[in-house]
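Quick one: structure for this chain?
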Amino acid sequence: MGLRPLLPSGPSLEEAWKADAPALRAAGLDAATVDLVVAQRREIDPQRELERLEEAGVRPIPRFHSAYPARLREISDPPPLIYVRGAMAPQDEWALALVGTRRATAYGRQAAGELARDLATNGVTVVSGLARGIDTIAHRAALDAGGRTIAVLANGLDTVYPPENRGLASEIAEAGALISDYPLGTKPRAEFFPRRNRIMSGVSLGTLVVEGDVKSGAMITARFAGEQNREVFAVPGSIFAPQSRGPLSLIRDGATPVASVEHVLEALNLTMIGAQMDFGRAAPPASEDERALMEVLTREPRHVDEVVRDTGLAAARVSATLALLELKGQVRDLGGMQYVRVREPAPAYEASATPPKQETTP
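Got it. Here's what it folds into:
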């Protein structure tokens, strides 16, 4: 519960901090919590905490502050205080949470990467949780497309989990924001992750689940989105893949199936707010080798050995040509010597000058 009962109607954080035991009890805190607050308050120096935050490049934003995300304030259980490293921006009103499993399939990795990229190139901020798998792919794709992305952490912002994403976290702070409702020094714990998911869905217009089993963090985020009266989207997958059980169950329960970014933009009534990048059309095949490869490559991953076999070209020529096509943005290397043809851009939407109208929760 913390200081939340003291904050909804007006007291500042300073007033809440200095509240005596009777005021804490009047605010609804039980006796044990009041004793704990009073005891711990003697051991905490607020000024020193503010200095630590400044040294870490972290800004605390209370719920009643104008910089607090408006959509997050609407949910039934908004954090009374969030910590931000980086900066929120007005365009973050156009945000979508893109989440999924840590154990993504090749299909899931491809879908997450392309959808995150297309969202970013259409001016939509991509929100995820910095976890391994789909989250990492979503953040990276948004950054590579030159877009904004927000990572919501289940620990203090002086810690990055998983540790291999430290570099990615720094990039996100430069081109977006890291958010947490946990103070500096808080280490990640299993029980923190489900609760932070309400923030991911809360700052977003909707939540898109790429892959995940029926009992997964991605499904928890989708459940929060539904409870917050936000849109829920899901990428259909194989009926035989455990990673598709979650999205398929969401679709069965009424979630919008997504096969392209247009499905998301149309469902949210978003017009094109960023220039669509021109993939594939700007640089037509410049040689017979390039033309031959583009004819055999599809939207499904194909191994380089299949490409060699179907084109009849020498392996060295195929490898060199694939490298050139990748530089042109016409093919993508999925790893494991698997390649796909990047889809052609969809027809452009008209630009919009104002954010979509916010819905209030009933």
